[in-house]
Structures are given as structure tokens and as C-alpha cells.
Amino acid sequence: MNLDLSLTLPVTLIDSDPILDLATKTGLLIAGGLIAFFLARALLVRGARAFAHRTNNSFDDFLLKAGFFSRAALLAPALVFFWGLEFFSGLKGVLDHLIYAYLAVAVVLILAKLLDALSGLYRTFEVSNRRPIKGYVQLVKLFIYMLGGVSVVAIMLGESPWGLLSGIGAMTAVLMLVFRDTLLSLVAGIQMSANDLLHAGDWIEMPAMNADGTVIDIALNTVKVQNWDMTVTAIPTFKFLDTPFKNWESMTQSGGRRMKRAIMIDQSSIRFADPALKERLMKVQHLAPFMIMRQKEIDAANAASGADPSSPLNGRRMTNIGLFRYYAREYLRAHPKIRQDMTLLVRQLQPHADDGLPLEIYCFTSDTAWELHEDIVSGIMDHFLAALPEFDLRAYQRNALVDTRSAD
């Protein structure tokens, strides 16, 4: 008799307390759902990993990397929850809505991981550099999240999701205001993709946003640029609709990078070429044939015009800067790192009273990499500056006051 009381008393107490009974059943149901989730995740991930190692298809690898199978395990607790509804007869209607809401959330999360896997697979193709889809994937995710949120609310209220969506249609103006930047960014992304304006890896320059570097990411709302000082600038995507920017990618594809440098010539050093200068420059391989031909043309022109040779101002004469200009052009034409099929100029610009006469070197190097290009340019400018004295020319530099008094 005493033994029977000791066994039946706890059960009687539990059955007589509905709150404790509900808490016990809820705890057991949640524990069962967690066990089902972890078991399903372990089985799915291990099975998928073993299957992926045996196949040559890379899509299953991206599904694993994105965590798709871990998210798919979220469906397993729903089966336990549906089975456990039998023990909640009084709350079956409410719990039924909660389980369907849970399913809606789980499906949304699973679809998001599926999109991540598809995006990762797409990035393995060469076309992904020219046609990035990350922004579109983010837009689809946003649509799925919104649809999932509406579905959860509709399930909890016991209404049709389509009825709620029709109500949201009346809030279009508000939604457009809230998602204004997102919509503009979407339009900008479509235009950039359609017109082939921007790709990951491009070198762009947008002074208005202090951006000058390589594009490392193109998303729906932002374009990330890693500047040359290793900082990162995040530019709103819609800024590319109305903000000027320069894309240097076509320069890289052309195989030639522009060199545009000027040597400031001291105008007081410019003069006619005298016999001593001509004799010295006749030893220069790039100049000798030109000087012989040029002298014949000048002598013929002066003889035809009857120019008086007693003054260098009569008739035509060679000048030291003209000879240097020709020499610089021939030097560039013989340089192995200068593109001969692109523009090549050595020209004078408008003189400046305070800065001398600019002699501009305009050409294209065959190496487009920044370091190699600058090395070629520096080597050419080094040579030209060192060659100026051979033509009796001087580079202009402003005179500085120098205190010649000896220090005590």
C-alpha cells in the first residue's frame, strides 16, 4: 500500500498542475527538435561531403562551403514538432501556426544559402569579371526575406499572404522612399553591367569620393575600392549614375600606358647651333644623318632666297633646341619599351615667364604595370636631363638665395 502511494503521487501532482505539465511537454518537444536538428545536420553534412569527394561536379562543393546542408537540417525539427502536436490538444491551433511560421523562416534561410552557392559557382566562370551578379543576388535575397516576413505575419494572423501583399501595394510610395537608395543602386548596377563600365579588378578613379585604386567588390548598395595607400573606400552604387569616374582598364587591355612628362627648358640657353656644336653633335648616331640632310635643305633654301650669311638671323638656321627635340623623338623611336604604333610626340608647349619653356614628352610604354611603367619613364627622363648640356641647354629652376657667409 505504501509502495503504491510512493509511485502514484508524483504523477498525480504533475497531472494536477497544467502549467507544469505544459512546461514539461514543451521542454521535451524542444529537446526532441534540437536532437533531430543536430542528427540531421551531422548526417546531411557528412553524407554530402562524402558524395562531393566522389564527384567531379563543383556545385556540391559550393553547397557545402555555403552551409546549405547545415541550413537544410532546419527542416528536421518541423517533423518532430508536427508529431508532438498530439500532446497539445488544447493549443493545437496556435502551435500549428507557429510550426508553419518556423517552416517559412527555415525555407527562407535555406534559399539564401542556395543563392550563396550559386553565386560562388558563377564566380568561377570568366564572365563573372565582366558581368558580376552579386548585386542581383542581394536583391533576390531581399525579395525572399520580404516575402518570408509577409508569409510569417500572414500565418500568425491566419490570413492569406496574397491579401497582405495587396495591402502592401497601397504602401508603394512609402516603400519607394524607404528603399530609394536600393532602387537607384539597382538601376546603376544594371546600367554598368549593360554598358560594360565596371568590373571587379578594374582600376578606377573617382575624385569626388577620394577613390583611386582597384575595385575589390561590387554589391547591390556599395562598390568597394582599395586605394593605392591600402585604404578602402565604399562608394554607394547609385553614385555611379551621376558622379564622373575614370576606368583605366581599357589602358591595361590596350597594352600601352601613357607617358606625359615635360622638361622645363631655360629659355636663355636656347640659341642657334654654331659650328662647334654641330661638330660635336655629328658624333651622335641618332642625329648625324638628320643633320646632314637638314643642312643640305637649309643651304638650298638660303641660296634660293639669297640670304646674307653674315647674320644668323638671315635665312634658316638649326637651333640647339630643335636638334634636341629631334634627338628625343628618335631616342623614343629606338626605345624597346615604347609602343611605336601609338601616339609619339616631342613638342613645345606654351612658354611660361616663371617656369621656362615646357618640352613635353608624350608617348606610351609597353608595360602597363605601375612599377614597371614608372621605371621606364624615370629612365627616359634621366637620359634626357643628362643629355641637355650636350646641346648647350639647361633645365630651368628658380634661383634661390644662398647665404655664402661662412659660419662662425
UniProtKB/TrEMBL annotation:
Keyword Transmembrane helix part of the UniProt annotation: yes
Example GO molecular function: mechanosensitive monoatomic ion channel activity
Gene Ontology CC entries for this record: plasma membrane
Location of the Mechanosensitive ion channel MscS domain: 181-249
Protein name: MscS Mechanosensitive ion channel
Subcellular location: Membrane
GO biological process, alphabetically ordered: cellular response to osmotic stress
Entry-linked Pfam families: MS_channel_2nd (PF00924)
Superkingdom of origin: Bacteria
InterPro entries with a match to the protein in the record: LSM_dom_sf (IPR010920), MscS_beta-dom_sf (IPR023408), MscS_channel_2nd (IPR006685), YbdG (IPR030192)
Classification via PANTHER family: MINICONDUCTANCE MECHANOSENSITIVE CHANNEL YBDG
Database matches in Gene3D superfamilies: 2.30.30.60
Source organism (scientific name): Pseudodesulfovibrio mercurii
Coiled coil: none
TM stretches of this protein: 26-45, 66-85, 97-115, 136-156, 162-179
Cleavable signal peptide: none
Keywords: Membrane, Transmembrane, Transmembrane helix
Record flagged with keyword Amino-acid biosynthesis: no
